[in-house]
Design a protein that fits this description.
The chain is of the alpha/beta class. Helix content is 48%, strand content 17%. α7 packs antiparallel against α10 and α8 crosses α14. It is globular, with a radius of gyration of 21 Å.
């Protein structure tokens, strides 16, 4: 029996973790290796076959101020993990994104179980941002292998002495059997004259508070200016559903809130049918790009956090959206902090609904992005590398 511990957090980590768990089970079956996967993650990982030590999808925040309410829940999870490590040490540990918590876990495993392989899949995007003097990361010291999803990520860590495999981006494995646009529109009940705007503001509580008001206000103005514009708002978490309706109504927006469970199931249809998305920065930008949905990106943190990031941490980056980061250019409009206003969102969004040339420029950039992300089969390559690190799980 091979026992793996996989650790991630937030909604995007659970999405990637679920894909990886499925691939690990398939790879282990092909090798004839009994496999147990224990995870810090969410319902997608549980549905894929992992046993959850704790649900960490609600435990995500950007910034020191925003993270304060999560300190006690995080400590409780850490104590639970420590007890589990003492009772049932794993054969390998896989860390997925979730920088702060996973670095602490990696250091703990390295100290307590020094012979246990530690692999980092979807490492922190230190290749994309700079903090302070830009000195190197701590994770190289405890990680035996990094499974990089971006080519620049592989170059960054490889140049600093890490053992790296570039496996490609796992979202490439989700592109099979996508519904046709007409089929998706019919399933969503869209009339022939209607166009669909997706509002995707939040997978974290703080994002709901800071991002939804300006994005919803912009969507309301778009609805007044573009005839037949229907707005759907997939809930990032079930906990968001009770408050979304009130927030959208206060913006004067007529929109349909899609419950989180339904949104997960209908995600392919929503993306196939969409004409435009107003969204946060994150993995969702890559999902939309790979499915050909034009988008406008916004992001905002609290003023104290913004001040600390600029003046204390000296945080610096050229782009915030992973689409722009991979391409090294400003393909997607990015409206940050004080620039995230309904008026500026509207100015960027209207051409994407009214100008075929503007849409085509973005779609052409999406084609270049697709080429830069690698080839399908990503999660199986990652799963094979993980099991290769366990001596009792030989290759088939």
């Amino acid at each position: 029996m091979v026992r793996l511990l996989i650790s991630t957090g937030e909604v995007s980590g659970d999405l990637q973790g679920g894909l990886l768990v499925s691939a690990l089970r398939a790879e282990a079956e092909e090798r004839g290796v009994p496999l147990e996967i224990v995870a810090l993650g969410g319902e997608r990982m549980r549905a894929a076959g992992a046993t959850l030590l704790a649900n960490t999808t609600p435990m995500g925040a950007i910034g020191l101020w925003e993270a304060l309410p999560l300190v006690l829940p995080t400590l409780r999870v850490q104590r639970r993990v420590s007890r589990w490590l003492r009772r049932t040490p794993p054969d390998a540990v896989v860390l997925i994104d979730y920088m702060g918590a996973n670095i602490n876990l990696g250091l703990k495993v390295k100290r307590r179980l020094p012979g246990t392989p530690i692999l980092y899949y979807i490492a922190p995007q230190e290749w994309a941002f700079r903090v302070g003097d830009g000195s190197s990361t701590r994770l190289i010291g405890f990680t035996d292998r990094i499974l990089a999803i971006f080519p620049e990520e592989a170059r960054f860590y490889g140049a600093r002495g890490a053992q790296v495999n570039w496996v490609g981006h796992p979202l490439l494995d989700t592109l099979n059997d996508l519904p046709e646009r007409d089929q998706a529109r019919a399933q969503l009940g869209l009339a022939e004259h209607e166009r669909l705007l997706l509002l995707l503001p939040a997978s974290r509580q703080q994002e709901l508070r800071y991002l939804l008001p300006p994005l919803a206000a912009a969507a309301a103005q778009l609805q007044r200016q573009v005839p037949g514009l229907r707005v759907m708002v997939p809930a990032g978490q079930a906990a968001f559903e009770p408050v979304l309706g009130d927030l959208l109504a206060s913006a004067g927006l007529q929109a349909e809130v899609v419950p989180a469970e339904t949104a997960n199931r209908l995600r392919p249809q929503l993306y196939a049918a969409a004409d435009l998305a107003l969204t946060k920065s994150g993995t969702v930008n890559l999902e939309l790009a790979l499915r050909g949905v034009p988008q406008v990106v916004g992001y905002r943190v609290s003023r104290p956090t913004a001040w600390i990031m600029e003046h204390v941490l000296r945080f610096d980056l050229d782009h915030i959206s992973p689409v722009n980061l991979v391409l090294g250019e400003r393909l997607l409009p990015e409206l940050l902090q004080n620039h995230l206003t309904a008026e500026e969102v509207l100015a960027e969004a209207l051409p994407l609904l009214q100008s075929e040339a503007a849409r085509q420029r973005m779609l052409e950039g999406y084609g270049r992005l697709r080429t830069a992300l690698g080839e399908p089969g990503v999660t199986r390559r990652a799963a094979a590398a993980i099991l290769d690190a366990v001596p009792s799980a030989p290759a088939p």
